[in-house]
Amino acid sequence: MTSETDPVFEAALAVLGDHCQPHSLAAWEAGDMPQALWRDLDETGLLSLLLPEDAGGIGAGADTFAGILRLAGRLAAPGPLAETCVGRWLTHAAGLPVPAGAMSLSLDGNEAPGGADTETLGVLTDGGLVLLPAAGSTQRRNLAGEVRLSPAASNLRPTALPAEQAARARALVSLGRAAMMLGALDRVLVLSLAHANTRVQFGRPIGKFQAVQQNMAVLAGGVAAAAAVVAAAARDVDAGGPGLLLAAARARLGEISVEAAGIAHQVHGAIGTTREYELHFHTRRLSAWRAEQGTPRAARRLLARRFAGAPAGALWETLLATG
Amino acid sequence: MSAAPTFDFLPPLLPANAGSLRAEVRDLVARERAAGRVAVKDRIGMAYNAGFSRACGEAGLIGMTWPKRYGGREATAMERYVVTEELLAADAPVRGHWVADRQSGPVILRYGTEAQRERFLPPITRGECFFCIGLSEPDSGSDLAAVRTRAVREGAGWRLNGTKLWTTNAQNSQFMIAICRTTPQDMKDRYHGLSQFIIDLSLPGVSIRPVINMAGGHEFNEVHFEDVPLAGDALLGTLDEGWKQVSAELAYERSGPERWLSTWQVLAELNATLGPALGDEAEDRIGALLAETLTLREMSLSIAGMLERGMTPNLEAAIVKDLGTRFERRTVEVTRDLAELATERGLAVPVRLGSLLASAILMMPAFTIRGGTTEILRGTIARGLGLR
After folding, report:
1. Which CATH number fits the domain A165-320, given the four candidates 3.40.50.920, 3.40.50.1260, 3.65.10.10, 1.20.140.10?
2. Is A255 on the interface with B (CB under 8 A)?
3. Residues in domain Acyl-CoA dehydrogenase/oxidase C-terminal (chain A) (predicted)?
4. Which pLDDT score is estimated for B11?
5. Which residues have a Cβ under 8 Å from the Cβ of B385 and sit 6 or more positions away?
6. In chain B, which residue's Cα lies nearest the Cα of A250?
7. Which of A262, B76, B105, B202 would you call most buried, defined as having the most Cβ atoms within 10 angstroms of its Cβ?
């Protein structure tokens, strides 16, 4: 995945790092709009990350996209960032005018991220893509207090899409959520480690106690596994593979996020359960995101069905053909 | 306060010839199966077959990364990884040469004298010379600095006394690389004064006693040394600096596919038989196991690639072993649950699956002990995180 040395990553870090501070997160959750952040994201071209260069975009692949979304997740950035990037790419690929500003993308009419003055809500179904005004959708807030949109019923005729484009858009949206979860896990690990190293009880930092160390090791193991499988999923999406590594990522993240949040809270003790401390921004997002733009259960089912009944001696070879 | 690591699993450098290497291994396994040297087993665990090891040697699959002048083929670590993974997934009887290929040979190549390399490496690559590892002792399990086996100078050589325990495959091995105390322990630096020796197990004074495991299998041994005369050239590497050599060895040992493929046959059989018969509940749980398999494989592959790039991802390697062995346990638990569900629904549990499961249940306690207990590994991870 894209890292610190990539200029696109540096630009994203500058913008997101500047705006996404704990007090801003609280204000956005209370109803403020992250207009300045989204204006800067647009001006630096990050919202056109996936658009081809000849269409005024950056022309990034899934790997860079995942790296940027990991960063956005680490900073709990508000609004439909992944969906805007994918939506711009998809509308352009479909020959439609690319909507300005923030847009969201619903898969099969399911709930999609809102916030950040989202104007357009794309609905991607087997029939194609429909663009709706976001204002007509039903709004709700998820566990993390983020705006979620359910598209209104529509009689508009969908714009048909080549199967490859539709599949890529679906994969990218799900990958975006996976990468954001990885970012949230990164941050949860950093906060827990800092707390374990500084919180003193019985005369020493709690991180010196073996019971705490063992749990921290499990937490770190989960984050490491998440990092490996999300990176593999991004490569798989770029290669146009059958999406099995992405399914593995969503399935693993469903479990890892629960285990990691549990340990992080246990390490933090009471302070971690308060609104004034930062941890909840990330653990609430992990709880909400695991079943957004795909679910762990659906991912497990997809994997199981792909390999069900393969003769025992042939399963390995079949599995390696996953890309 | 140390910064938390950002885990970046670099993309694996899968070799361009990965496909042909896999085909090479599959052909070999098929030929050896026809010759009766590779069985479809009904219990888990790495089997021993000297003939198969020789066939691997003839096929150039042992010591692949070593220089050609010692019998290797100067392949990359990733090429070796591909071959290893294929052999394990095929449940091939690699026990004989396993340790020499993975560990003993590389240690001799790195720390041995030219004479030692010329003596040991070519027969290892031919699949004729098997090694075992002498680390643990009756009073030295997780705490390796506590070893009491002593090598005392005598003339130009050494005299060896002590006992090694949990020595896998000693009964079929010609040599052991053992860590022994050569200088009395100094509590200020407990790891100083240990040295590695290559011990010829046919020497007088060596006795090997089987230690049968709870599954009824003979993998472990107790190896007793009583006044064993060692020649001067039995010392491997630097006197009193054996601990450093062993640590380097352990780092390479923890991230391999053997850390999550022990129960592969159970999962493959479950997926082939009961899985399709049980519907939703089986789908959900088998899907989770497949997701873990794919994830662990990516981690192992990525770490092999990082090692090849000259990096030392020790933290990541310890994590793979911890996650891998937990996954193996989970495979057993899921299979047991689904077998019970099948029985409840009046479905017969296929005979081979039942036997594999039974052996896995009995082998399971060892997964999280061998090669470093989960507690020790997590301590290593905690150290990597800056907590100790």
Report:
1. 1.20.140.10
2. yes
3. 176-306
4. 78
5. A193, A216, A217, A220, B2, B4, B5, B315
6. B291
7. B105
